[in-house]
């Protein structure tokens, strides 16, 4: 059983979660210029471009959110929000949201490092003292 899914019942709910996860993890790759399996693997395991980082953070956030929220399914509280697949759907959406926030943070800090390196030629991003981290107030 993956994510606590009932194997022989509640097919509609299971398919709904599968469609949501597909929309969050795989469907955005159709926006790429070359959406092939090799490219998907490259994006998830070694992203280089900003849009690749976005796709990786979005996909990882959705899957990690779904997987971590499935722990709520095994609790015996018998609450309506605990029924299959509500926790996994909310976990996927929250995970994708936090993935986007992580992407924005990553992009902001990367741009700040680049701007700092361009404006201060004496500093080096590989210097071990400050690790290239400077506050960007532009």
From TrEMBL:
GO terms for biological process: GPI anchor biosynthetic process. InterPro entries: GPI_biosynthesis_protein_Pig-F. GO terms for cellular component: endoplasmic reticulum membrane. Coiled coil: none annotated. The keyword Nucleotide-binding does not apply. Pfam families: PIG-F (PF06699). Keywords: Endoplasmic reticulum, GPI-anchor biosynthesis, Membrane, Transmembrane, Transmembrane helix. Pathway: Glycolipid biosynthesis; glycosylphosphatidylinositol-anchor biosynthesis. Its main location: endoplasmic reticulum. The chain crosses the membrane at residues 12-32, 53-77, 83-105. It is a multi-pass membrane protein. It is found in: Endoplasmic reticulum membrane. The keyword Transmembrane helix applies. This is Phosphatidylinositol-glycan biosynthesis class F protein. It comes from Opisthorchis felineus. The lineage of its organism: Eukaryota, Metazoa, Spiralia, Lophotrochozoa, Platyhelminthes.
């Amino acid at each position: 059983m993956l994510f606590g899914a009932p194997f022989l019942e509640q097919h509609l709910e299971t398919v709904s979660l599968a469609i949501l996860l597909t929309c969050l993890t795989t469907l955005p790759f159709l926006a790429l210029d070359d959406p092939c399996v090799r490219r998907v693997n490259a994006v998830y395991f070694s992203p280089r471009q900003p849009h690749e980082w976005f796709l990786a953070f979005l996909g990882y956030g959705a899957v990690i959110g779904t997987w971590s929220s499935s722990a709520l399914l095994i609790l015996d509280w018998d609450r309506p929000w605990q029924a299959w697949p509500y926790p996994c759907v909310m976990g996927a959406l929250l995970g994708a949201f936090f993935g986007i926030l992580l992407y924005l943070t990553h992009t902001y800090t990367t741009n700040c490092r680049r701007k700092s390196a361009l404006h201060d030629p004496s500093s080096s991003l590989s210097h071990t003292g400050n690790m290239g981290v400077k506050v960007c107030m532009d």
